[in-house]
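Hi all, long-time lurker, first post. I run a small reading group and we've been trying to get comfortable going from sequence to structure in the token notation. Rather than ask abstract questions, I figured I'd post a concrete chain and ask someone more experienced to write out its structure so we can walk through it together at our next meeting. Sequence below, copied exactly:
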Amino acid sequence: MNRQAWGLAAFLWGAQVIQAAFANDVDSDLVSHLLREADKAISSERFDDAAKNCQAGLRVLGDAYVDDAVEDDTGQKLIVADILLRQGKVENASSMYCRMLEERFQQYKKKQSKN
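-- Answer (accepted) --
Happy to help. Here is the structure in token form:
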């Protein structure tokens, strides 16, 4: 793991600790940043980095996106993404992780606008 990756890992760990302390308070800027970084990684065909960024974004978001009025099938899709990753299909897995993060983040923003 290079220095930049270690720095990102430390940053994300700190973000997760803060996230846990404030339950449903989500750092939207961090989630947006991770999505942008994942998009750059996909454009550069660095699919492993994209998957890691979107997985981190999913952890930061947690279940704050959940709205009882909305059916959510993203959990099942994330199981498929995990399987794809284990099968070495990193490009497909990263795409799925990032789509699910985008979907959940959009749902979170809709939920926040209601409150």
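A couple of things your group might point at:
The first helix runs from residue 3 to 21.
The two ends are 41 Å apart (CA to CA).
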